[in-house]
Amino acid sequence: MSSSPEQPARPAADMLEMLRRRGLVERRLVMVSSEDLTPRMRRLTLSVAGAEPFEPRAGQDLVMLLPDGAGGLGRRHYTIRSYRPEQRQIDIDFVIHSRNTPGARWALEAKAGDEVIAFGPRGRNVIQPGADWRLFVGDETCVPAIFGMLEELPDGAAAHAIIEVADAEERLQPGRPGASIEWVLRGGAAAEPSSARLIEKLAAHPLPPGRGHVYVLGETSTIRRQRHDLLARGLDKDQIFGEGYWRPGRVGGHDHLAEH
To answer: Which candidate, 138, 1, 26, places its Cα nearest to that of 81?
Structure first.
């Protein structure tokens, strides 16, 4: 998932104490390697130091504390794209919107051996049981979560994804053969709030028979409208799982959209 606009400097000790009070498990991550998956998506492989249990579910994230360039730390949530327990290594995919945010700077500049503090795993947006079919909707910030959840589904499970990205070069393929993905291209433009493309695509998408689960992720105002439309089409609240990864003016954290 992506980073938000620059966060004002916050002393490192204050940030650490706040997260420790929340009861999340503190981790030390060590940079192993990096690679560019697309012109705007960079993958970092990190090892999870220590011997504490680490059992992330697909779709969950880590709260990473990254240098903000002003002596403080920037808090950012990044989805765990994949985990290899035998090596205790994770992959995290960073969307590079700008070089002027803690996440982008760190993803571009981190070298093997560099360390970062993280908390988690955490997050409620994971595969839920009891669905005949599943639909995933989001922008490029959601690709790691959507792909991770698609790959967790058993063979033959009915699932479809609608994903908006900047252009054709940003399209990727999950490690699930035959995954059904509809790509929505912006013609190179940056992502914007209240994405008419995603709202209209979801509104026009036929909902299969049976009981389905819809996961709407990404920009908060887009998700609010999508939830409203899905409820109007007859889905129950417990069939819609929404999480806002970003919105203008929000720095770090997520917006949970499950109650309205």
So the answer is: 1
Rounded to 5 degrees, φ, ψ at 71 are 90, 0
- Strand-pairing partners, residue 33, are 45
Q: Environment class of residue 36 by beta-carbon count within 10 Å: exposed (0-12), middle (13-18) or buried (19+)?
A: exposed
The rounded Cα 85 to chain-centroid distance in angstroms is 20
Rounded Cα distance between 193 and 174, Å, is: 26
* Domains detected in the chain: 12-122 (2.40.30.10), 133-257 (3.40.50.80)
Q: What is the pLDDT of residues 39-86, one digit of tens each?
A: 999 999 999 999 999 999 999 999 999 988 787 888 899 999 999 999
pTM, two decimals, is 0.91
Ramachandran category for residue 210: left, alpha or beta (phi over 0 → left; psi -120 to 50 → alpha): left
Amino acid at 207: L
| Contact between residue 155 and residue 167 where contact means Cβ atoms under 8 Å apart | no
Cα(243)–Cα(120) distance, rounded to whole angstroms? 17
| Residue 76: count of CB within 10 angstroms of its CB | 27
**Distance between first and last Cα of the chain:** 23
Residue 98 is which amino acid? S
